[in-house]
């Protein structure tokens, strides 16, 4: 089923309305859709490298908007919708740990984890559940999604189609590098204060207790 859904998603990248499909996939992925929009973004950038940054901006803004839906699910209907949604996505066991990290670190976790393969929808729903300040959530989401999508757009715009092989192989490493640059100051301050390991231990303990 997941493979068929992926194939269907990729087919939309060749649609004349591909930019609208990209926006839709980015929006729903941030709250409940299991397939990330990055493959569609990559195909679109490969087809039209000169529009790569514009496509990346579409994905970024749509994902942030979708994140607000995820936030609303966690904040208003977690008990009736959120729990079932997380169970369907196989994220129920990750929820307590995510909630702990968001409470302890706040926006920094969204900026760091939202730019990694960890499902962004888990963070958006959890942020709503713990009532993270909305403006803080929006700001962190913009940073996170910009790192996640714009790096693809910029690389395609500068290097064109030949960059595809590099992105396929090294995108994870490049993304990590951008994350380090964006939140490096926070990480350094946390390590110097010595509080980071205590918070990490607390959240790991929450996960172990749930298990």
Describe the structure.
By secondary structure, the chain is an all-alpha fold. It has one domain (2-210). The chain contains eleven helices and no strands. Helix 2 runs parallel beside helix 4. The longest helix is centred in the last third of the chain and has 30 residues, at 164-193.
Task: Give the key terms.
211 residues, mainly alpha
Strand content: under 5%
Oligomer: single chain
Number of strands: 0
Count of alpha/pi helices: 11
> Average pLDDT across residues?
80
Reconstruct the topology from this structure:
Layout: H1 2-11, H2 18-29, H3 38-47, H4 52-76, H5 78-89, H6 95-105, H7 107-113, H8 120-129, H9 134-159, H10 164-193, H11 195-210
Question: What's this entry about, in short?
Answer:
This protein is mainly α and 211 residues long.
């Amino acid at each position: 089923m997941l493979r068929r859904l992926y194939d269907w998603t990729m087919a939309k990248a060749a649609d004349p309305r591909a930019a609208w499909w990209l926006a839709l996939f980015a929006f729903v992925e941030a709250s409940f859709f299991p397939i990330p929009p990055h493959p569609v973004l990559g195909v679109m950038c490969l087809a039209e490298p000169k529009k790569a940054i514009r496509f990346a901006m579409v994905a970024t803004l749509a994902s942030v908007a979708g994140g607000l839906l995820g936030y609303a699910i966690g904040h208003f209907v977690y008990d009736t919708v959120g729990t079932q949604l997380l169970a369907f996505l196989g994220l129920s066991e990750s929820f307590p740990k995510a909630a702990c990290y968001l409470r302890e670190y706040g926006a920094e976790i969204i900026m760091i984890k939202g730019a990694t393969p960890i499902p962004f929808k888990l963070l958006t729903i959890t942020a709503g559940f713990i009532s993270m300040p909305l403006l803080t959530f929006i700001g962190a989401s913009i940073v996170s999604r910009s790192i996640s999508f714009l790096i693809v757009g910029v690389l395609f715009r500068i290097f064109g189609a030949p960059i595809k092989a590099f992105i396929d192989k090294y995108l994870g490493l490049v993304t990590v590098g951008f994350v380090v640059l964006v939140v490096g100051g926070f990480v350094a301050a946390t390590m110097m204060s010595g509080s980071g390991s205590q918070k990490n231990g607390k959240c790991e303990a929450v996960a172990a207790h749930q298990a």
